[in-house]
Design brief:
Blueprint: H1 8-16, E1 20-23, E2 31-34, E3 38-41, H2 51-59, E4 63-66, H3 70-78, H4 87-98, E5 102-109, E6 112-122, E7 125-133, H5 138-153, E8 157-161, H6 165-169, E9 173-176, H7 177-188, H8 202-212
Parallel strand pairs: 7-8
Antiparallel strand pairs: 1-2, 3-8, 3-9, 4-5, 5-6, 6-7
Amino acid sequence: MGMAELTPERMLAAYRRGIFPMAEAADGMVLHWVEPRRRGVFPLDGFHISRSLRRQILAGAYEVGVNRAFGTVVAACAGRRETWINAGLAQIYAALHRQGHAHSLEVWQEGALAGGVFGIAIGRAFMGESMVSGRTGGSKIALAYLVDRLRMAGFTLFDTQFLTPHLASLGAVEVPQAEYLRQLQAALTGTADFTAPATPQPSVLMQRSTQTS
């Protein structure tokens, strides 16, 4: 599929069917629709916070932002040596962000992006696209605040597309595509507002995470 054929509406329709596009490389013009046989998902009550991450969160030497720098997060995720985000996909993400479907959560330290994650929200489903660490532990802090936000906002499904060792260490699991589609259809029936919850203080985040993990 060529980039010219992809629109924000077509991309949302694909997500509702359980598939998503990926480019071959940053400079590639061909997209592939992907439907994994086994899908990575993050149980919203199963985020694992290690002792070192707990100390880092409670130290509070950072600031958390929501949709403050969406384009910066996408560009940082696409700036790796190997990436599936090309310029066309970045434009689609930007359009979905303007429409209120795509969101980012950023962790800032001393004015620099220490970590970030972005994804697409449809109903009560959040499709995590990519994350980045500018500093050690930055993406883990971002994920901790993201999972809390999704839970507080009423989301029921956090799709990670694939399961990586990094995500598995934090509590993500793998399910058959049929089970994923069942969870997806249930999540599409309701609504959730990504921007509604307030960002908690580190101690509140840790308390809520302890209660649910």
